[in-house]
Amino acid sequence: MPRFLPALCLLPLSISFAFAQAAKDDEVFPLGVVEVIAEAPAKPAPGVERIDLETMRQHDRRDVSEALNLLPGLTLQNIGQRRERMVWIRGFNSRQVPIYIDGIPVYVPYDGNIDLARFGVDSLSQILVTKGLTSVLYGPNALGGSVNLVSRRPTAPFEASAYAGFDLDREGDTQGRRAGARMATRQEAWYAQVTASYADADFFRLPSRFSPTANEDGGRRENSASNDRLFTAKLGWTPNATDEYVLSYYRQDGEKQDPPYAGRAAGVNARFWRWPDWDKESLYLISRTAIGDSATLRLRAYHDSFYNQLDSYDNATYTTQTRPYAFSSLYDDFTTGLSAEFEQRWSDAQVTRLAVHGKRDVHREIAAIGSPQQHFIDRTTSVGLEHEWKPSAAWTITPGVSWNELEGRQADNLVAGAIVPFDLETNDAVNAQVAVGYALGDDARVFGGVSRKTRFPTLKDRYSYRMGSALPNPDLAAERGTHVELGYEATLASFGYRVALFHSRLTDAIDSVTLAPTACTAPPCSQLRNIGEQRNEGVELSMDYAITDALRVSANYTYLHRENRTRPEILPTDTPREKLFASVGYDFAPRWTALASATSESRRNSATNGTRVAPGFTVYDARVRWQATDAIAASAGVRNLSDKRFFYEEGYPEPGRTWTFQVDYRY
User: Fold this and answer.
1) pLDDT band at 512, cuts 50/70/90?
2) Which of 31, 59, 309, 663 is the most buried (most CB within 10 A)?
3) Which residues contact 659 (CB under 8 A, 6 or more apart)?
């Protein structure tokens, strides 16, 4: 039985805070939005869900992974052996759900993943999420949805803000500190903005009920320090009311330790890993140019790079690298791309959009110090056509189709210390979608549709030996998914709610096939192949009710059923069947606000054979904020109020009770 009832019963007992200042609609960077619709910015297109800046601040969500966990249908994943935070959308993982910054794809070219815990939210105005019905204008690989991080832009001649804060564990020891600042200006024909932030954690403390294991004695989590530094800059030129040209720069420098496995499952070995470098840098140019009175051309050109060093050590002293599994690995990857979108508005009822994407992924790897550098290069092309038709004031029908191609250009195989080329392949795929919306007056609408989407295999999928336990498969083809969705959303006075039913069928899914142990150098041995058929289906419910001007309640619930139809004995991993999030916000005195929240999730498998299971949990957070003046505010809160022992992956416990404090200044 899900543990949701205790969460709802105890929720009113711990009330936290409601943040003061939201990101105004004109602070949203419009060139960063992919799906441009005729409706007001405050009302996303059907099937698009939004997390705005105010909501992220209300709930003290400091990075993108934490912010996304507020939405129904989205589930956090902690890849414990890599200390990477990912999200699943309706049972689709991060390789099947691309991440964008202002419409620019951001990922590690080699494996398609990205650690969302490394991305702060200070420079964002909102996060836009699509699920099964994702516009073909996004380009390739949006099999299970998309996440677009939309940046901010200035609205006043001078803007400035800053914050500083720290975290204490349950014993009062300082375990982390953070600070950030933003300065910006908006002039008649140009604007500029810079942001910088810093987050440093010495450790995190485990819950008091944690029982010591072979590699973790409790208390301060072993090897759990991290450090992140973020800098962004934006320079925009607005020569007239319709055109805009923006140059943006993004720099993320990080380092992190990786806590070792702290469970008791047989056959799971601890890894003693550290990343002295986890750096990402992006430079992109985005433009919007009006062509006559009825057409618009949008361009995006970008260069995104990723540098990573992983050091694997012999043991928990983190000093020697003499054993066979000890190594230092270097990734030096980059992506260069260009996309163009042309929009023709034939009338108020007819709009056609054509999008063309091209990018080149380069992965450069030194598997071990002293080995030759291997090069892997892919080229991806996508052409998408979408037409928005409004046959009446109530109806909106949007069909779309796209063609995508993945061409392998170079793949180096390291054999006995020498480079030998892999065979190269070219894949193509056709995507199609029809999305429909029907307005029931001004305050309610029905939405739904059918889509056929694909995801190309990554470089790692096709060419990795996985440390001797797998054989590469350059012939891997695209995964294919069919989505059906039906939803309803409405606002009745101060009460808003949303219901969505979804069903997804995944074919040609990339699945692992067991091979003879002698085929690999470090058995057991396997190979990835296009053999899988899966089903993901469920329901999402959400509501938001302003009981009074001072009291607000929000909640969302997700039920997700996943099934491997090809091999039913293989259990789905990393997603709970049920998830509930609920919060209560209350302005309990002048200049004082509070908010409490609870997150409940049912159990999840951490191994496909069911031998590792992360139990269900309920976690409570609370926060209080005092707006001392119009410019200065202070807040205090607690995460994991009950010091609950909980896991996103078995063997990798999350932090216990943590006290948070912060001071904000806004000009």
Assistant:
1) confident
2) 59
3) 167, 168, 169, 170, 636, 637, 638
pLDDT tens digits, one per residue of 305-328: 999 999 999 999 999 999 988 999
Please report, for residues 45, 442, 445, the alpha-carbon distance to residue 493 in angstroms, rounded to integers and kept in the order given: 21, 12, 15
pLDDT in tens, 231-245: 999 999 999 999 999
- Establish how many alpha carbons lie within 13 A of residue 495's alpha carbon, considering only the half-sphere containing its beta carbon: 2
Chain centroid to CA 470 = 28
- The amino acid occupying position 353 is R
CB-based burial label for 406 (10 Å; 0-12, 13-18, 19+): buried
One-letter identity of residue 515: L
Q: Which residues contact 443 (CB under 8 A, 6 or more apart)?
A: 490, 491, 492
Domains of the chain: 4-666 (2.40.170.20)
Residues 6+ apart with CB under 8 A from 273: 81, 82, 257, 258, 310, 311, 312, 313
In sequence order, what are the residues at sequence separation of 6 or more whose Cβ sits closer than 8 angstroms to the Cβ of residue 630? none
pLDDT-derived band at 546, boundaries 50, 70, 90: very high
Q: What is the pLDDT of residues 436-448, one digit of tens each?
A: 999 998 899 999 9
Task: Map residue 329 onto helix, strand or coil.
Answer: strand
How many H helices and E strands in the chain?
Answer: 4, 35
Chain centre distance of CA 360: 22
Those residues whose C-beta lies under 8 Å from the C-beta of residue 657, and which sit 6 or more positions away, are 169, 170, 207, 638, 639, 640, 641, 642, 643
pLDDT per residue over 190-219, tens digit each?
A: 999 999 999 999 999 999 999 999 999 999
Give residue 395's pLDDT: 95
Per the CB < 8 A criterion, the answer to whether 519 and 471 are in contact is yes
Q: Please report the sign of the dihedral spanned by the C-alpha atoms of residue 525, residue 531, residue 537, residue 540.
A: positive
Which among 447, 355, 330, 469 is positioned nearest to 394, based on CA atoms? 447
**What is the rounded CA–CA span in Å between residue 117 and residue 19?**
22
